[in-house]
Amino acid sequence: MIFSARSSVLVAAVLGLALTIDKEPAAQEPGSVRGRVSIDIPITAKRATSTYSRSIPAVALAPESELRHVVVYVKDAPRTPAPAMRAEIRQRNENFVPRVVAVTVGSTVEFPNDDPIYHNVFSLSRTKTFDLGRYPKGKSRGERFDKPGVVKVFCQIHSHMSATVLVFDHPWFAIPDEQGNFDLRGVPPGMHQITAWHERLGDTTLPLRVEPARPATVDFVLPIPARPEDRP
Amino acid sequence: MKMPPRLLARAPTVILVTVAAILTLAAPAAAQQAQPSVLSIDSAASVDVTADANGNQVTGVFLDTLVVGDFGKNIQAIVRPQIQRLANNGEWNRQIWVAEMRYERPGPVAFRIEGGYIPSPVGLANLTLRPHMNPTIAVPAELFTSIPSLEVRGPRVNLMSGIYPLGAQATASATHWDARVALIDTSPLRLRRVFADPNPPLFGGNPPRFMNVVVGGGITPFVGFRVGASLTHGGWLRAGESPTITTSRDANLYTIESELSFRHTSLASELVHDALDTSLGTRSTSGWYVQGAQALTPRWFVAGRVDRIQTTLPTIAGLEQNFNGTEQTLGFRVTPEITLRVSHRMRQAFGRDAWDHFGAASIVWYRRWM
User: Fold this and answer.
1) Which of A60, A70, A132, B26 is the most exposed place for a label (fewest CB within 10 A)?
2) Class at the top of the CATH hierarchy for domain A32-40+66-77+177-232
3) CATH topology for B5-24+45-368?
């Protein structure tokens, strides 16, 4: 009986310790956010007009997929240092390619000119105001982004050209692939606001609980959030 | 070049039928990877206030919209309605400045043909006639400054007018060159509008239609530098326009233009020489302008232009008459769509020794809708 009582206490203590050991690391283990973005309204690319040029510009093609102009990110993520990145927005056929990039604070975005004409990249955004000046084909100039926010980029010479740089002070953001799939890894557990941003459709935000060490799923149908019953 | 009146009357029909035939025969375009928008629309507006040294103020208002419809196969329809409150007399002026069909085939040697009311195929200054494309508040003087009449009791002409003629133009271009030929119904020396005063005073309304041929081209030795030239030949005066004009007359108009851009600087210049056949023989007039713009910071820029027009009085060819003008502009880009400008202008009108000073301020708005 004594054995039994002691054993019970011991078992309870071991179980308690085991639960504690099991529970403590799990609370710190991050989860992930996966999902798919789709766009359910017809949106089309802007075509350049060239009424006033003496030379004929190269044809301006629409992008292969508007999904490449979406950025999915954790809206209420805590400020978390992340390694700086190097990104690139090329100037090609009087378009910025890609038109959307997402980088971490401290990153540098290069703007190579592939066109046989001058371009003049500039931004008047509060997050970053800059003017790279004119430079010809084969040259590239870069700009470092030190504050989080949205930076709208234009060409001073060709008013139809525009691009956007999203700068984050955390690492939980992604641009979907051609099928619209995205995967944010290492997201802190808890309730979060997950946002899908499109350069012309704006923000769409959905609440999502991220469980430790588990993938949470959220799908976006832009520009209107997917209804709960539509989600798998 | 003089056209028989019957042929001249049919010119618009001939041009439209020609354009339609060319568009029908146009080669198919390469397949695109994705479908671009069918319509492209942008608007530009400006309000400017100018005051002279005596404190007299005039206000000019300008609003235009450019609509481009894409019919596929590289065929586009372009129309540009425009409303303007003229600063000098306060009148509202409504015009269609472009209404054309265009076929454009890109490639190593790109090709374009357009017909209808087309942008002027002559010179460089005409390309600055939208406020957001003009670095200063005023446009080059050659476009709207009437020079003293070169024909006895004849109309006053401009060195080179801002025109949107009815006509057709073919353009070819590659990386280092461009060439164009155009047939237009308007003399570049005389303004012609789609909507003209129905009861104009003598020489105050639309001039007769004159067939003019324009040949032009340019070379681009390196990116950012282009030198071009054009020659325009055609009628400028019609017999019977006034009781004293008994013979139709031709004119030649030569232009040389250049553009240079580097880093935060852009420069442009144009030289125009007119040779007009008059009752007193050939009369010449010429002029030039040089303009530049320099970005100081992403928001601040300065720009300036120097204009000069030299001409003579018709009856005393040796007596030279000059027009000189300068403008210095400070600009601030509030947003990519809104720009504020202030400027100081000086003008020395024909036959005057004194310079007139003006101060001006403007707000320019440009928006691309789709």
Assistant:
1) B26
2) mainly beta
3) Porin (2.40.160)
